Amino acid sequence: MFHAASSLVPSTRSSPNQNDQDDQHGHDDRRDRSRDRSAERAAPRPAAQRDAFFDNAKYLAIVLVAVGHSWEPFKGDSRVLQAAYMFVYSFHMPAFIVISGFFSRSFDGSPARLKRLITGVAVPYVVFETAYPVFRRYVDHNPAQEISLLDPWYLTWFLCALFVWRLTTPVWKLVRHPLPVALGLAMLATVTPAIGDDLDLQRVLQFLPFFVLGLCLRPEHFRLVRRRTVRIAAVPVFALALAFAYWAVPRMNVSWLYHRDSAQELGAPWWAGPVMQLALFGCSLVLTACFFSWVPGRTMWFTVLGAGTLYGYLLHGFLIKTADYRGWFENPALHRPLGEIAVSVAVAVAVTLLCTPPVRRVFRFVMEPKMEWVFKRDAAQLAREREKGARPEESGRRGTDEKVAGGVGA
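Structure tokens predicted for Fucose 4-O-acetylase-like acetyltransferase:
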């Protein structure tokens, strides 16, 4: 391209054949530009670049989720550990759900998005909702454990919720004030015990405001909470939250933080449900903002692990449940401060390893199956290929671009 540009520089000398030479150079320039445009169209487009901040946030949130699960067998031994447990549970899943909502903004119900939703969320749900009960039957020797796709067990509730939330994304884009509507639905769910356990709809509805909030956010909102003043303010906020959690341990039912029961099921008056829903949403929102303020925005050693957080989330449950079924958590040495710290570190290391690329490659056939044999070809794409005479490699490149545009999963 440089020689084409240089040919446009005027010459200070003239010759009898100057006009012929100019015409020839003009034709050469047009041919060169045409070749350049053709080469640009033929060259594969670069993959969408991932934002290190969000990958860092997802990794740190999933570590908190796994460590929180490891504290469950020990939290009754120490009020300090119970306070830490309540503190972590007040924002680790809200933070993860807000990010999931943020990356669901592009979901429009198109065939490409629906395919990715089925292969990336619905299929793993079916697989793990079947695998966990079978795992318990053989490891815990519990033949009474049934397989039910309507009753999410242990960790699989999030996949069920994510599927429902993402399907409803086009609806939330149409609503004038989506967040107040989502909060209203969550508050109504807390006074509706008749919802039952099918598809864990209590959690789907009570955590819904965090997903809708993520849909409403823009990149500049995350930049606001990452300012230095917010990071400094987050220190006393975290300290006050820990102190409040320590005070609330004997006074508050920790099940409120799970968002899986109505007020009546928790033995509280009906009006406590909406009040607690609003209060917990506000507290979780503040702590989530503080958490985001401390997430590094630059590339770290664990940034690459952010793409595999769903692997770590679903797979670490087998480790936790194995230790539980085999009675490993009953070891008295683990019920001391050093033992609890050792378990926390071990689980953090384990979930980190489960997010690594080698593990992702092994389990990709379950977590991200292509399943091209299931879906029909897009009629519009087929028409474009017939019209343009697209080559197979071009069609494959378009499919890859659609997958990248489909957004990042939770």
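Confidence is low (pLDDT under 50) at residues 1-28, 36-47, 393-410.
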